[in-house]
User: Which sequence fits this backbone?
C-alpha cells in the first residue's frame, strides 16, 4: 500500500515539532496537506434519443467520459517543485529558431537582394549562434534538474504546515 495514504491519519505531535508562530504541536507534513487538497473526478454519461423527421427516423446514441483534477488553493500553494521540461525547451527553441531564421533569410534574400544563396553568411552565423544557445540552455536545464531541483524537493519534503495559523516550517 502507498505510504502517503497511510500517513493521512497521522499528525505530528512531538515536542521537537512545534509551530514557531503559535507553538502548536498539531503540525502536518506539507506533502500530506498537498495530497489532501487534490480531488480526482471521473464521470460517465450516456445519451440516447430517437427522432422522426422529413427523411425518416433517426437514432442518436452517445457516450462521454469526463475526467478531471481539482485542487484547493492551499494544495496549489503547497505544490512540490517540478523539474524543468526538456520537451518545452526543445519546442520553444525550435519555434524561435525557425521564426528568427526565416526573418533573417527573408531580409537577406528579398529585402537586401545581395545574397541569392540559401546559406548566406548571416543565416549561417545565426544557425551557429542558435545551436550554441541551445546547448547552453540544455546544460542549464540539466544542472537545474540534477542539483537545484533535488535541493528544492528535499526542502519541500522536510517542511511542515501548521493548520492552526498557516505557518510553514522546515524541520531537520
Assistant:
Amino acid at each position: 500500500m502507498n505510504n502517503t495514504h497511510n500517513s493521512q491519519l497521522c499528525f505530528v505531535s512531538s515536542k521537537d515539532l512545534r509551530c514557531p508562530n503559535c507553538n502548536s504541536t498539531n503540525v502536518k507534513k506539507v506533502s500530506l496537506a498537498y495530497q489532501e487538497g487534490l480531488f480526482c473526478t471521473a464521470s460517465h454519461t450516456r445519451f440516447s434519443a430517437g427522432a422522426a423527421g422529413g427523411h425518416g427516423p433517426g437514432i442518436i446514441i452517445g457516450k462521454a467520459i469526463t475526467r478531471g483534477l481539482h485542487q484547493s488553493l492551499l494544495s496549489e500553494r503547497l505544490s512540490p517543485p517540478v523539474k524543468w521540461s526538456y520537451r518545452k525547451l526543445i519546442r520553444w527553441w525550435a519555434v524561435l529558431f525557425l521564426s528568427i531564421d526565416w526573418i533573417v533569410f527573408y531580409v537577406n534574400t528579398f529585402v537586401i537582394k545581395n545574397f541569392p544563396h540559401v546559406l548566406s553568411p548571416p543565416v549561417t552565423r545565426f544557425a551557429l549562434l542558435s545551436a550554441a544557445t541551445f546547448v547552453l540552455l540544455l546544460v542549464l536545464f540539466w544542472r537545474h534538474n540534477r542539483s537545484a531541483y533535488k535541493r528544492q524537493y528535499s526542502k519541500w519534503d522536510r517542511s511542515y504546515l501548521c493548520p492552526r495559523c498557516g505557518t510553514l516550517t522546515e524541520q531537520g
Observations:
- Confidence is low (pLDDT under 50) at residues 1-13.
- Residues 3-51+58-79+160-170 form one domain.
- The longest strand covers residues 38-53.
